[in-house]
Amino acid sequence: MARARKTVEAEEETLTPFFEWQDAYPWQRVALQARLRQRASWPQALLVHGAAGIGKRVLALNAARALLCEAAAHDEACGACESCHYVAMGQHPDLMLIEPFEREPSGETKALDAIPVDAIRRLIEFMQITSHRQRAKVAVIVPTERMNAAAANALLKTLEEPPAGSFLMLVAQQWQRLPATVLSRCQRWAAPYPSTEEALAFLRGEGVDGAEPLLAQTGGAPLTALERFDPEQQALRQDWLKALAQPHRLSPYAVAQTWAGGSRDDNKLRLGQIIETLIGWTADLARVGGGGAARYHPECREMLQPLAAAIALPELFHYHRSLLRQRRWLNHPLQPRLVVEALLIEYRALFFHRRSQ
Ligand SMILES: [Zn+2]
Questions:
Q1: Which of 142, 145, 149, 218 could lock 224 by a disulfide, CB 3.0 to 4.6 Å apart?
Q2: Based on the domain organization, do 334 and 280 belong to the same domain?
Q3: Which of 229, 173, 147 minimizes the C-alpha distance to 60?
């Protein structure tokens, strides 16, 4: 009886609050097909990893759809059978997607800092129920590094002995942060990175004007570039870069004050963008300082040159590393406003350093 009720619930519930189907991106198709040709030996625990903004989640979900597809087996999902249809609707009873969101009793969706153990318990239960459509059971976790410690622990047993016919796909950007016990039980699959041509063609197809600098700013990640393609965002970014280009006039306190009114989620999002900008900016300063070309902000060459000349490289590297560390803790910022203020004070100090020594 319990089993029957669960199935009905699964049919009623969509995969995730913001689910929208997306076919594999052009730069993913060849790798996906090659992998699916060996579907007979598809690993039960697969870690799909790679940089942000290249479509890892989409890749994993497309692989899931192909594993669940009910048409004669070939190297991709048919896109036409009932199973493919249900996956695209986000309503396939044998597919579960775990993301850090929660539905509140009011029906509202809340973003969570971490994937809680409850979500993993639901996944384990789901994996143990017999496949509804007798093809397979697939669970996808995105992003896996956001599982809290209890969740990671709960997952271990299932990773060790996955039920027959079930597949787990763990999607991760910073996969090195996953516990060794989780890593050692997964086969790894590096999500394909698009070539510059592929990424630019994609962005043009999405109607992005002036895609080149935008793509460079995001280190070649087309989905991040698409996300940032917002004229208002771009203007804000320009203001930011201008402020960074004049460290002696930069007022960390004044910048931080402009954050006073934002919501917690907004401030966290902005903090993430600012840290990314600073990471790219300091990487460029190091490259220009070493006689190379700017990678993230090639259009700012003239601004970067005098700054790079005024900076001591060891301090710059030190600061850059501290930014990378900050990015790692982004999901638990104490006070985004204070973090920004501190980061900017440190940034400014890079240029006063020699005088104060
Ligand atoms: Zn199909």
A1: 218
A2: yes
A3: 173
Residue 206 counted as domain residue: no
178 and 314 inside one domain: no
Structural domain tally of the chain? 2
- Cα–Cα distance, 156 to 32 (Å, whole number): 27
Residues 163 and 249 in one domain: no
Q: How far is the CA of 240 from the centre of ligand 1 (A)?
A: 47
Q: Could you tell me if 72 and 159 lie in one domain?
A: yes
Centre of ligand 1 to C-alpha 68, Å, is: 7
Residue 296 lies in a domain: yes
Neighbouring CB atoms inside 10 A of 284's CB total 25
Region of poorest pLDDT, from 32-36, 90-94, 154-158, 326-330: 326-330
Which phi and psi (to 5°) does residue 133 adopt? -105, 15
pLDDT at 18 over 90: no
Of 148, 138, 163, nearest to 39 by C-alpha is 138
Domain range for residue 109?
2-190
How does the average pLDDT of the chain come out, rounded?
87
Helix H or strand E segment including 103: strand 101-103
CA of 288 to the centre of ligand 1 (A): 51
Q: Is residue 327 part of a domain?
A: yes
- Tell which residue, 291, 222, 202, 241, has the closest CA to residue 54: 222
The C-alpha atoms of residue 97 and residue 141 are separated, in whole angstroms, by 6
Based on its alpha-carbon atoms, the radius of gyration of the chain, rounded to whole angstroms, reads 23
Judged by DSSP in three states, 200 sits in: helix
| Ligand 1 center from residue 83 Cα (angstroms) | 6
Residues 184 and 279 in one domain: no
**pTM confidence score:** 0.69
Please compute, for residue 31, the number of CA atoms within 13 A of its CA located in the half-sphere on the CB side. 17
What CATH number has the domain bearing residue 83?
3.40.50.300
Q: Which residues line ion ligand 1, judged by CB < 5 Å?
A: 69, 71, 77-78, 81, 84
Length of the chain: 357
* pLDDT, position 329: 79
Q: What is the pLDDT of residues 105-144, one digit of tens each?
A: 777 777 888 999 999 999 999 999 988 888 899 999 999 9
